[in-house]
Amino acid sequence: MALIRNFELGTMTRNSIHDPIDATYTIIRTDDRSFVQIDTFGRDSREIPGKKSQTIQLDKNSGLQLIKILKDAFQAD
């Protein structure tokens, strides 16, 4: 599990599209902060189907960064 504190633009030498999977999200509220947790699950062909694969959490700062990244990425579509 990881709480993302910052996004930085990276580069890849070889791009590939991954197989589609399912994910869930949860909104977590504490007394003074809110977080979004995203859990991803393995492919249907995985040894243990439906097993959680990764968990990431976003706070307000990283969530707002991700919103901007998504807007920039998809504005031309």
Describe this structure in words.
The protein is of the alpha+beta class and 77 residues long. It has one domain (22-77). The chain contains 1 helix and 4 strands. The radius of gyration is 15 Å and the shape is globular. The protein starts with a strand and ends with a helix. The relative contact order is 0.25. The mean pLDDT is 93.
CA-to-CA gap between the ends?
Answer: 32 Å
SSE order, one letter for each helix or strand: EEEEH
Oligomer: single chain
Shape: globular
- Tell me the major beta sheet: 4 strands, mixed
Structural class, please? alpha+beta
Provide mean pLDDT, rounded.
93
How many individual domains?
1
Radius of gyration equals 15 Å
Topology:
Blueprint: E1 2-4, E2 23-29, E3 34-41, E4 52-58, H1 60-74
Parallel strand pairs: 1-4
Antiparallel strand pairs: 2-3, 3-4
In short:
This protein is of the alpha+beta class. 19% of the residues lie in helices and 32% in strands.
Please tag this protein with its features.
single chain; 77 residues; alpha+beta; four-stranded mixed beta sheet; 1 helix; 19% helix
